[in-house]
Design goal:
This protein is α+β, with helices and mostly antiparallel strands and 361 residues long. It contains seven helices and 20 strands. 20% of the residues lie in helices and 36% in strands.
Length: 361
Amino acid sequence: MPALRFRDRDAIVTEEDLIFRVFGYTHPSHAYICDVEYAPSAIFKSDNPRALRTRGQTIFYKFYEDEGWKLIEKRFPQYLILHEMLRQKVIGVDQRGVKKVRKPKAELAKLVQDEPKDELVEAMQRVLQIVTKCSGLSANDFGVFGSLLHGFHHPKFSDIDLIIYGKKNVANLRESLEEVYKTRSPHIRNEFETDQSVKEKNWRFLNFTPKDYVRHQRRKLIYALLRDERSGRIIKTEFEPVKDWQEITNDYNPETKILQRGWTKMLARVTEDTDAPFIPSVYGIEPLKVLTGKREALETKRVMSYLEEFRMQAFKDETVCVEGNLEEVANPEGRFFQVALTYCPRYYEQALKNVIGNGIS
């Protein structure tokens, strides 16, 4: 069987109609590491009012927090694959388990070419018109994810979830959106120009405050609000960065081992931010001071963040405070240390934030 070619945010549908999202770019040769996102009601039901999705006569529910992991572990262990580098099982789909694939770029092309079937698709087309006009990008530089990708969006309540492909295109879009936001456009604005979005959140991070969150999200520029006059509502709109094919390298190596070395908190200078917009977000760092944990953390070379909260969180030459799992990466070429921000028992203690002045905000 020839190898299937997927990248971050491509969608895999299995025989059970479970919907998985391909996670990142590093995978074993026979399978893809994923998040499980949705399940049909015959398999899983949720009391969460945000979870319900419908596609024709079929009802789906979205997973929140660890609901998906628990379901896979209990009922579908075939979707747990061994991550040899971590020496533990993670959610993933073997190539033989792929029944159907939904590619964000191909699905968006269909939505753009066809007459809009509802007001959300029409609003999405208007968003694309706005951003392509101000940036010089084309619709072919974008994709669609979330409920729009799967065809179970709600025209009156769903958000607009778009993908922007490629590092240069991401930079171009951010610069263009920054200019649009500055003009106080009546059509589209920065979602985080106020703290309104945080007021709706059940905040659980311990070392990363709502104020921190808004300050960092505001400068990412990829989160917008569309004032849609035709539907009469304000629609959250996201532009998710994903790498172009030529930018992708698969760094999965069974001979590499990732060893846990305890918890650390440190101050560091960011030396590289090229891969900060993507998942995983990678930040080259120069440690400045270890605040908590082992002294060997001073040898840390990078921060690897698998959490969307800490994507594009810091930029080159900024000083940051980072708190997370210290890992030793051992491969045939040698060893180095990294801080991982990921799904773990101390999830809400993790943080990555830039330092303001002489203190930490």
